[in-house]
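Hi support team,

I submitted a single chain yesterday and got back a structure, but I'm not sure I'm reading the token output correctly. Could someone confirm the output below corresponds to the sequence I sent? I've pasted both exactly as they appear in my results page.

Thanks,
R.
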Amino acid sequence: MRNYTKLLTLTVVLAAAGWFAGCNSTIDNEPNVVLEVQTLTITPITSSADGPNGSCTYTITLATGTFKNLPKNQYADTSPFNDIILNSVNITYTWDDGVVQSPISAGLGGSVPAGGTGTAQFLAISNQALTVDGPNDPAGTGRAGHSASLGLTFNGVTVSGDAVSTSTGGTLQVNSCTVNLGACCGGIASNGCTDFVSNDACTSGGGTYQGDNTTCATLPNSCP
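Hi R., thanks for writing in. Yes, this is the structure output for that exact sequence:
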């Protein structure tokens, strides 16, 4: 009887030990904290006409995010092991005119202490990406006057080595770039008429400006 009791007790102890080991292994594979976006500020991008052909120059202000480090239990709010080091942000774009833009990954500096908040700045879009023309855009205006819905995933790692991430959405607004362009007869035109030229560029090159938003194809009289 005693041997049977000892055997049963040993079986229960081993089963319990196996259960705790499995439970602990699951916990150990997960971060003890959750990364959360509290606020996200994406300043509209300004643009201005630049150069004789009316191309746009963009001024980009870094976006700012405020993040919260949320402990999963009462033991996870201690620093430094549960502090989150912010590493990067992945951004996707959905433009209002259907232009397809490749996602980017931008660097993200800063940290978020356990149970606390932290801020970080990042580049929401590159200057090069803003020069992409859409199907209905005059040459040189790029993304001026358009907006994009953003999908943002922020990535980091705890000091103890656990990867964390969180996703949210945002809006990127690119202000209009006032560029008055039209057709130019003579002067700089090699074939008699040139489209998408500013008044100053046309007249300074010895041509005759045909008016804003005119095109060679729609002129009432062909250029001499």
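A quick pointer for reading it: Residues 12 and 85 are 42 Å apart (CA to CA). Let us know if anything else looks off.

Best,
Support desk
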